[in-house]
Amino acid sequence: MIRIRQIKIPVEKDNIQELRNKICKKIKCSDKDIINIKLSKKSLDARNKPNLYYIYEVDIKISNEEKVLKRNIKNNDILKTPIEEYQLPKLGNKKLKQRPIIIGSGPAGLFSAYLLAELGFNPIIIERGEPVEDRTKTVEHFWNTGELNKNSNVQFGEGGAGTFSDGKLNTLVKDKDYRMKKVFEIFIKCGANPEILYIHNPHIGTDVLRNVIKNMREYIIAMGGTFLYNTCLTNLVIKDNQITGIEINNKDTIATEVLILAIGHSARDTFEMIHQNNITLEPKPFAIGLRVQHPQSMIDKNQYGENYNKSLPPASYKLTYQASNGRGVYSFCMCPGGYVVNASSEKGRLAINGMSYHERNSTNANSAIVVTVSPEDYGYNPLDGMNYQRKLEEKAYNLGNGNIPIQLLKDFHNNVENSNLGNITPIFKGNYKITNLNNLLPEEIALALKEAFPNFDKKIKGFNQDYAILAGIETRTSSPIRITRNDNLESINVKGIYPCGEGAGYAGGITTSAMDGLKVAESIIKKYTY
Predict the structure, then answer these.
(1) How far is residue 4 CA from its own chain's centroid?
(2) Residues paired with residue 79 on neighbouring β-strands, in sequence order
(3) How far apart are CA 30 and CA 416, in angstroms?
(4) Positive or negative, the Cα torsion across 79, 80, 86, 92?
(5) For residue 280, what are the contacts with CB-CB under 8 A and spacing of at least 6?
(6) CA angle centred on 5, ends 2 and 7, rounded to 5°
(7) Residue range 54-96, pLDDT digits in tens
(8) Quick one: pLDDT band at residue 346, thresholds 50, 70, 90?
(9) Nearest Cα to 184, choosing from 226, 212, 206, 143?
(10) Can you give the pLDDT at residue 112?
């Protein structure tokens, strides 16, 4: 096949025939010569508003391939399609005596389980929360009533924290081994839209992602995996610096010599237990801040132009700023057409997140605007960052009387509490309460945010508008802890334990967590046979 890059089509003319016409013009061929077209990449170029273009990269099958390549040999945008396929690892030679155990069924846990099951290792997946169907009902109940299930919520349960997010799949990780492609192919096999393989900044959406996760579970079971729900890891069994088993629910023990810790960034009781077992941990930087809501129409006009084509998807943005106090400020987990959700996982503490359905069709855009924090802010002991998060979440819970504390942006700037909202309808999952968010944030964080909003307004007109709605607190941007691992991806001081994914400090988001799950599974497969 032939790969053709930089095919530029105006948004208003975007259709398959126009694409074929552009291909023919670029490689100087007839339409009838094209046997098949496979999209490789598709992105939107909005740099020259109001003239917007889709930029395509395609692979084509053509009747006279060698002749076309020879004719276009000096054109760097035309080349033979490279081989870009994930290669399954070869089995090792050490006999695995017991089934491998995976703690957590978020992206890292599910994808490590999928690969291990595909290669015949029959993994056991331990999940403290519920299957995704039951979990969805439990989360909706929490949003409606405030009654929290501490083991099954927005953070815990099948699918992990990403299940109640936007389902964003973008990543900047270099992928020379094509793990990302393998992840996307599995997602598509389980029900995701095939466009995620080629579209720029793909997303699945929380509603579709739930079905994908259910289907993925069924594939893993069919290949020999076992899921244990409502089952919590409560202790480790270690002998001579080697994992030999785990304790679950404070009573039962399961023997194993391979344990994948894909626990997620909010498994605080598990972090404490791991620390008590002298597994080497270290603190790591993360970010905290507030989530802001604007009208999606405002974001669309800024990103696409005043009279933009309504066929375009709801627009997103990415913003960064360096505050005068040295703090980095940036947008995080931007959700076009989304909701701000109560994402709490501990009683008496409150954290929020953003979420979008596949259609991204709510009237508001939201994004976390967060500020970097480091051990200099909270301490150098392994659990200090986690406890720093907890203190802020307790303040948020108390400030909102158990509801999400919110405030207009103008009142945040002026440090006043006002009982009124403006012309932007607040869109939340979970109840909210108007308050003064200055009483929630550390002073240096609030100052950095107040400095950043006017700067962001220079890039997106209206971003600093008076009636934008702020909500707090966003603390779960990434894990505050890293479970240290060696070059074989094992814990540096206990053999057989494989820290994995975002909670272990080695990923950020659905895609990188899933890729790390594959990477850890590969390391196990290369060492063991079953």
Answers:
(1) 30
(2) 3
(3) 68
(4) negative
(5) 483, 484, 491, 492, 493
(6) 115
(7) 999 999 999 889 999 999 999 999 999 999 999 999 999 999 9
(8) very high
(9) 212
(10) 98
Domain containing 14 equals: 2-80
| pLDDT digit string, tens, across residues 389-434 | 999 999 999 999 999 999 999 999 999 999 889 999 999 999 999 9
List of residues 6+ apart from 515 with CB closer than 8 A:
111, 171, 173, 175, 179, 180, 183, 507
Q: Domain check: are 132 and 115 in the same one?
A: yes
| Domain count of the fold of the chain | 3
- What's the start-to-end Cα distance of the chain, in Å? 39
pLDDT at residue number 189: 98
427 vs 355: CA distance, rounded Å: 11
Helical ranges in 152-292 per DSSP H: 179-189, 206-222, 268-276
Amino acid at the residue 412: F
89 inside domain: no
Query: Measured on CA atoms in the order 384, 385, 391, 397, is the torsion positive or negative?
Result: negative
Quick check: is 88 in a domain?
A: no
Q: Check which CATH number belongs to the domain holding 107 and give it.
A: 3.50.50.60
pLDDT one-digit tens code per residue, 287-334: 999 999 999 999 999 999 998 999 999 999 999 999 999 999 999 999
Burial degree of 326 (CB within 10 A; 0-12, 13-18, 19+): exposed
Surface-to-core class of residue 414, CB atoms within 10 Å of its CB (0-12 exposed, 13-18 middle, 19+ buried) = middle
Q: Would you say how long the chain is, in residues?
A: 530
Are 378 and 341 found together in one domain?
A: yes
Q: What percent of the chain clears pLDDT 90, i.e. is strictly above it?
A: 97
Q: Which two tokens stand for residue 23?
A: 């291909």
